[in-house]
Design brief:
Number of domains: 1
Distance between the termini: 35 Å
Helix content: 25-40%
Radius of gyration: 18 Å
Structural class: alpha/beta
Strand content: 25-35%
Shape: globular
CATH architecture: 3-Layer(aba) Sandwich
Number of strands: 10
Low-confidence stretches: none
Bound molecules: adenosine-5'-triphosphate, magnesium ion
CATH class: Alpha Beta
Length: 237
Amino acid sequence: MNPILQTTDVVKVFGGLRALDGISLSVEENSITSVIGPNGSGKTTFLNCINGIYKPEEGDIRLRGKSIVGASPHVIARLGVGRTFQISRTFKKISVLENILSSVLDSEKPIKQLKEEALEILGRVGMVALKDTLGEELSGGQQKLLELARLWISDADLILLDEPFAGVHPDLKAEFYKEIKRLREQGKTFLLISHDMKSVYTLSDEIVVFDLGKVIARGTEEDIKNNDKVIEAYLGI
Ligand SMILES: Nc1ncnc2c1ncn2[C@@H]1O[C@H](COP(=O)(O)OP(=O)(O)OP(=O)(O)O)[C@@H](O)[C@H]1O
Ligand SMILES: [Mg+2]
């Protein structure tokens, strides 16, 4: 067992609300771990604590054994943590190709090579024809794809995905499953949040279920499908 990420008793409070109420979770290197749970159960807040947008009031978050609590998002990104956002953050006034290149601004590779890589990645997500289109002209689903494409070209080795498939066509989702699995084979680790249970079941090595800021279950598809607490809090709705 070799966790790339380990959180211990993480607490995040907003006013009187304990959005995270003692989350302890470990993510093994080269795995795909999914976090599911009802709306408002703390999933996005958890990612925001991992990548430094929020600082938890209590608890510890370790990346490869070193605490990253209090580090800025920029520093955590440099340590190899990449993420997508539930609401896409595409740069509106630059092209699709430039959006991808924006995630490798400090790369030492020659720009020609980076452009070739960016075009190859766009090809894989079926967006080459849109390379000169401005970010603001993309549909919601296309922005989701662009967010993923930006991660593929970066050196991130722990990738946090917040609802990456929302609004993405089923055929393209299947392509993404292949791509995520391929990247996992190459050594990347994924922490996925999704309400799309088919995606979760198709991809996950382990599924963790949140409810009211706590972990209420973890295990395989079978484990969580047969867990009474999960059925009551989530799957049974
Ligand atoms: N910045 C904030 N200020 C105040 N409350 C917040 C803030 N961010 C999140 N919350 C609250 O914390 C709780 C957890 O929210 P969070 O966004 O983490 O849920 P989620 O599990 O990602 O839900 P969803 O499935 O709807 O995306 C919610 O009750 C939410 O209203
Ligand atoms: Mg969320």
